[in-house]
Amino acid sequence: MNLKQTSERIRSLHQQYIASLKKEKRVIRLFQIVIFIAFFILWEAASRFHWVDPLLFSSPSAIWNLFVEKLGDHSLLTHTFVTLFETILGFIIGTVAGALLGALLWWFPRLSKTLDPYLVVFNAMPKVALGPILIVALGPGFTSIIAMGVIISVIITTIVVYSSFQEVDANYLKVLQTFGATRCQCFKEAVLPSSFPTIISTLKVNVGLSWVGVITGEFLVSKQGLGYLIIYGFQVFNFTLVLMSLLVIALLSTVMYQVVTFIEKKLIKHR
Amino acid sequence: MSFLVVDRVSHTYFTEKTAVTALENISLTVEKGEIVSFLGPSGCGKTTLLSIIAALIEPTEGAVFIEGKELDRFRPTAGYMLQQDYLFPWKTIEENILLGLKIMGRLTEETKRRALDLLAYIGLKGVESHYPSQLSGGMRQRAALVRTLATDPKMLLLDEPFSALDQQTKLKLEELVWKTLKEYGKTAVLVTHDIGEAIAMSDRIFLFSAKPGRIMHTFMVPDELRRLSPFAARQHPSFSALFQSIWKELDELETNQ
Questions:
Q1: Domains of chain B as residue ranges with CATH
Q2: In the predicted model, is pLDDT for residue A255 greater than 90?
Q3: How distant is the Cα of A268 from the closest Cα of chain B, in angstroms?
Q4: In the prediction, which pLDDT does A105 show?
Q5: pLDDT tier at A270 (50, 70, 90 boundaries)?
Q6: Complex-level ipTM
Q7: What start and end residues bound the annotated signal peptide (chain A) (predicted)?
Q8: Count of CB contacts below 8 A, A vs B?
Q9: Which of A110, A146, B62, B213 could bond to B9 as cystine, CB 3.0-4.6 Å?
Q10: Which residues pair with B61 in a beta bridge?
């Protein structure tokens, strides 16, 4: 009887604990929503009552109207699609090429020692400065924009992936070597899977980097895409267009980041 | 000819600034089915010698023969068990214990069934689809033993395999490993710094001195202890006599340095 009472009590305490956790979550979510709404209301008000210059800072309602209008004539969808395509392609190529280069460096230690100073220089250099050269070399089209997205992420990916390959616990390799494993088997069974978390976390960094590369590329090429809309809006002093493009980019990059987080959760279960 | 022959092996580790001799002129033989221990203070090169026998490193001088044949890095004849289990955390227990067979290209229905039988024999039935993180330390070390035995190696090299476990688990595992080795008639080399463990587990004990590693003394474990399992051996009156004489020898080694 007494035991039963104790377990009843523990169960009700546990439920109280769960309820308090849920409550805390709800409070946080509420604050987040309040900040979101307050920000836009304040922005709208500031613009309406000329606390700030509406020509420079536009207003949420103006942005929304422009958004609906541009959606209607399909121009926004085209620009968004172009940018998204370039970013995803730049992201994938940059990550895959970086990982492959990292593997190559791991495979040939002499190569990595030789290339080390060049990697350092190339990593330290602002890749955006290569933009004009890329456009001359590859033509003012989407090839140079994608190249921009790739070049900005590939070296840092190479460096991070290579160093995570090197940090593999030597004892895992020892286990494999006692079975007579070749270098290829060591890579496949221990080096690659144990570096998975690092590779995934470079994916997250690369999402941001490829957006930077692609938008900069579109600034320079100025043909189409959200980066082009921003630079165009700036030139004709239409800051509603600039801010609208910015909001679309913010939304899309967040979605892309969430997708990578989802993939991360799927891939890394048992660590 | 003996099963394992270590012939005048010396090994020196080189770095830019130093040349440290870990082993100096080691010669020994181990017979088939025998369990021997390498006992000594840390830094006496016992793990180095084990790595040489496992063909993981090549000795600076000398050679090692198993059944009269020189070692081949890509055709290992010895199974190696490390201080910690080093089960691959991203693989299930089943994938882990089949790893050796897979690497050696010997994974068939038959070898797989044998490995799973071994897992059941060692008391781990039903954890095949678990991940190592779901198992306790003792269970993981047992799974690592199955991984080592699954390839049916001619001999077993145990590098302080019980030192990371708590006392109770350690005693139980000593018992299990000893029984498994005897059951399958395996030759084994155990590296340890635990005198009791060396006496309880082995037939012969090589006592090493440190810096550089040399064999100072070979102790024969008396017949009455060899026949007993580790736990029973620890209770036998001859146990403490041998313990005392090894202790004295080790103590003298230390004071002489």
A1: 1-77+156-218+251-255 (3.40.50.300), 88-153 (no CATH)
A2: yes
A3: 8
A4: 93
A5: low
A6: 0.83
A7: none
A8: 55
A9: B62
A10: B10
